[in-house]
């Protein structure tokens, strides 16, 4: 029997509620496919700050390093407390260091529009029908991590952030994007801003070299402003979108709402496999925390990605994805999904949605 050690970083506000449902689903899937999972709950973000005055204590990183994969809930606090030191430094104190420490340079964010949810999209159903795109975002370099300055010059404040990429950093993620495209619809679109930014010119040159090594994959290029527009006008044209850290941050939020709710989507952050970090792409939603209202699907689908990429079991991943899809197709909706025209559909809470998915998983052959 294979054993996997999973580090759990439950996160803030709705984090622990949705991660609890994901853990329930993980137990069932492990049993179903004959694996064993040992869970380690690790202290980070708000919880760690209250206890130790830091968001990512060394003992958490040390224990996380012993794990095969990390399952993470959203980190962060309510908008009215954003200047409180407990929340002001979550990004720089925990989220970015986690990515850097584990060299998680590949961030995968997939958007699919399920037939059952077409009407939830803010975009017309004819446009979003069948959308299935994967954003491959560079996650450990670029403007997020480049040199920063702040100074006073001629009596006024001035600040800068530098976008720096090395050829090797672009090549390694471009290679991933082409490899993923081969398992999908064989198309890669590079998104950058090569008409203005020198770093984007390098992205384009290096990616063209990689494209030449993979002639069976269709390759095209869009400037980021046009890509933002195309995501709304004609999102079906995309299969794999390859892009840098900053553009990937923005475009992945935009892409996620094509499906109607950001509450549905997981992400995988990968470096040297099989280790990976899996988490919802949405935030900690303080306003609905503790009320059994949050949608646990993004956390549950994060577990699916963990089985696919870290535990090398595409069948376990697919079993979870099919269970989620079956429950949504039957019409069950959490609050975020109960859009207009859905009044007669049942609305379920966080725990009930978790239970429905567990039952659907047990019923699958
Ligand atoms: C994301 C988030 C993070 C990012 C923040 C919280 C640092 O927006 O994962 O997309 O910008 O990468
Ligand atoms: Mg973001």
Walk me through this protein's architecture.
42% of the residues lie in helices and 19% in strands. The protein is an alpha/beta fold. The protein has 2 domains: 1-103 and 265-365, 3-Layer(aba) Sandwich (Isopropylmalate Dehydrogenase); 122-259, Isopropylmalate Dehydrogenase (3-Layer(aba) Sandwich). It has helices at 14-32, 45-52, 58-65, 85-88, 90-101, 125-128, 167-182, 198-213, 224-233, 245-256, 297-309, 314-329, 350-363; strands spanning 2-9, 35-41, 69-72, 106-112, 132-138, 148-153, 156-161, 187-192, 218-223, 240-243, 266-270, 276-280. The longest helix has 19 residues, at 14-32. It is built from 13 helices and 12 strands. A 10-stranded mixed sheet has the order 2-1-3-12-11-4-5-10-8-9, with helices on both faces. Strand 8, helix 8 (198-213) and strand 9 form a beta-alpha-beta unit. The two termini are 21 Å apart. Bound molecules: 3-isopropylmalic acid and magnesium ion. Residues 91, 95, 249 line the site of 3-isopropylmalic acid (IPM).
Beta fraction: 15-25%
Regions with little confidence, pLDDT below 50 for 5+ residues: none
Helix content: 40-55%
Class of secondary structure makeup = alpha/beta
CATH fold group of the largest domain: Isopropylmalate Dehydrogenase
Number of helices: 13
* CATH classification class of the largest domain: Alpha Beta
Reported CATH architecture of the largest domain: 3-Layer(aba) Sandwich
Query: Strand order of the main beta sheet, please?
Result: 2-1-3-12-11-4-5-10-8-9
What's the number of domains?
2
Main sheet record: 10 strands, mixed
């Amino acid at each position: 029997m294979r054993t996997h050690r999973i580090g759990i970083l439950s996160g803030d506000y709705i984090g622990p509620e949705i991660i609890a449902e994901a853990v329930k689903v993980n137990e069932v899937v492990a049993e179903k496919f004959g694996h064993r999972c040992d869970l380690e709950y690790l202290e980070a973000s708000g919880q760690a700050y209250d206890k130790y005055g830091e968001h990512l204590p060394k003992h958490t990183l040390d224990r996380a390093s012993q794990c095969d994969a990390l399952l993470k809930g959203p980190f962060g606090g309510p908008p009215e407390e954003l200047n409180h030191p407990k929340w002001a430094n979550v990004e720089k104190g925990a989220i970015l260091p986690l990515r850097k420490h584990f060299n998680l340079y590949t961030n995968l964010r997939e958007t699919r529009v399920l037939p059952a949810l077409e009407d939830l999209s803010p975009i017309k159903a004819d446009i979003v029908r069948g959308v299935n795109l994967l954003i491959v975002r560079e996650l450990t370099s670029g403007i997020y991590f480049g040199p920063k300055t702040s100074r006073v010059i001629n009596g006024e404040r001035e600040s800068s952030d530098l976008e720096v990429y090395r050829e090797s950093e672009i090549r390694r993620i471009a290679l991933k994007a082409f490899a993923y495209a081969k398992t999908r619809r064989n198309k890669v679109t590079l998104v950058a801003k090569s008409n203005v930014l020198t770093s984007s010119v390098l992205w384009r040159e290096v990616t063209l070299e990689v494209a030449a090594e993979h002639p069976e994959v269709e390759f095209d290029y869009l400037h980021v402003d046009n890509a933002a527009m195309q995501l709304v006008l004609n999102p079906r044209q995309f299969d794999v979108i390859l892009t840098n850290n900053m553009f990937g941050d923005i475009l992945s939020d935009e892409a996620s709402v094509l499906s109607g709710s950001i509450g549905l989507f997981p992400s995988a952050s990968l470096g040297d496999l099989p280790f990976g970090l899996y988490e919802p792409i949405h935030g900690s939603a303080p306003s609905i925390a503790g009320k059994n209202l949050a949608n646990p699907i993004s956390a549950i689908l994060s577990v699916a990605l963990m089985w696919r990429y870290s535990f090398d079991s595409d069948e376990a991943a697919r079993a979870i994805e099919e269970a989620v899809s079956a429950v949504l197709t039957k019409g069950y909706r959490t609050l975020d999904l109960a859009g207009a025209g859905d009044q007669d559909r049942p609305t379920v809470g966080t725990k009930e949605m978790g239970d429905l998915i567990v039952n659907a998983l047990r019923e699958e052959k």
